[in-house]
From TrEMBL:
Protein name: Undecaprenyl-diphosphatase
Name of the gene this protein is made from: uppP
Miscellaneous section: Bacitracin is thought to be involved in the inhibition of peptidoglycan synthesis by sequestering undecaprenyl diphosphate, thereby reducing the pool of lipid carrier available.
Membrane topology: Multi-pass membrane protein
GO terms assigned for molecular function: undecaprenyl-diphosphatase activity
Family: Belongs to the UppP family.
Reported function: Catalyzes the dephosphorylation of undecaprenyl diphosphate (UPP). Confers resistance to bacitracin.
EC class (word): hydrolase
Catalytic activity: di-trans,octa-cis-undecaprenyl diphosphate + H2O = di-trans,octa-cis-undecaprenyl phosphate + phosphate + H(+)
Record localization: Cell membrane
């Protein structure tokens, strides 16, 4: 197996794990870094598969909670409400994704589109943080969320189908605008990633399994493991960060990173793939 390709898969796995749960768009970073490294997988299966590695980091970090919920389904009221909330939040983006995933991948999966959304999303985060500053959240615990709270977060997640927007950014900011406390919005975004990415991985694998080769399996394995450990680090760090800080630094990072890509494209310094 080509050692250079394995190294590229390792880098992209780390990028995925570190960015999946931050409001800076993991898909956008994978597109940009994939273009820089000249790494392009069949049908984007590699990118989807390694996202599952990052999601497993959430399952591992919250393993006690997930175990309690799974064993309490049908018997425990809080477990039933939690599962209902995830189901309600999952549906909007899942339906829209099924209807328009082909068009989105065909027209929006390129570095320039990603950069534009990174910049716009950065300004949106700044606006949300300023708007919510000083306001008392309506929901201070994930267990206190109602189905309508979950539906709002789920509708916000639809915007994440546009590469560069960020799934976590959409759900966290949408939740905060609705009145969820910052940490509550962050945790629910983590939990919502589990059914969303498991479904996306399964769907893409079923569609493209004939394109898999032995080399693909090796690359995915390397990227998967790297994404898991990087994701675990990111989850722990983000929870600690939002306990005392806001998302403004991530907004500035988005604006600078996206702006740099747009500048290099406009000046012709980098020939970004279209």
């Amino acid at each position: 197996m080509d050692i250079v390709l394995l190294f590229k898969a390792l880098i992209l796995g780390i990028v995925e794990g570190l960015t999946e749960f931050l409001p800076i768009s993991s898909t956008g970073h994978l597109i940009v870094f994939g273009d820089l490294l000249d790494f392009h997988s069949n049908g984007k299966v590699f990118e989807i598969a390694i996202q599952l590695g990052a999601v497993l980091a959430v399952i591992f970090e919250y393993r006690e909670r997930f175990t309690k919920i799974l064993t309490g389904i049908g018997r425990d009221r809080s477990a039933n409400r939690f599962v209902l909330n995830l189901a309600v939040a999952f549906i909007p983006a899942a339906v829209v994704g099924l209807l328009f995933s082909k068009q989105i991948k065909e027209y929006l999966f390129n570095p320039v589109s990603v950069a534009a959304m990174l910049v716009l999303g950065g300004f949106f985060i700044l606006w949300v943080e300023k708007r919510q500053s000083g306001k008392t959240p309506k929901v201070g615990n994930v267990d206190d969320m109602r189905p309508r709270d979950a539906l709002v977060v789920g509708c916000a997640q639809i915007f994440a189908l546009i590469p560069g927007t960020s799934r976590s950014g959409s759900t966290i900011m949408g939740g905060m605008l609705w009145g969820l406390e910052r940490k509550v919005a962050t945790e629910f975004s983590f939990f919502l990633a589990v059914p969303m990415m498991v479904a996306a991985t399964g769907y893409d694998v079923l569609r493209h399994y004939k394109l898999f080769t032995l080399q693909d399996i090796g690359l995915i394995a390397v990227g998967f493991v790297a994404a898991f450990f990087a994701g675990l680090l990111a989850v722990k760090a983000l929870l600690k960060f939002v306990a005392t800080k806001n998302y403004v630094p991530f907004a500035y990072y988005r604006i600078l990173f996206g702006g740099l890509i747009l500048l290099t494209w406009a000046m012709g310094w980098v020939d970004w793939a279209e």
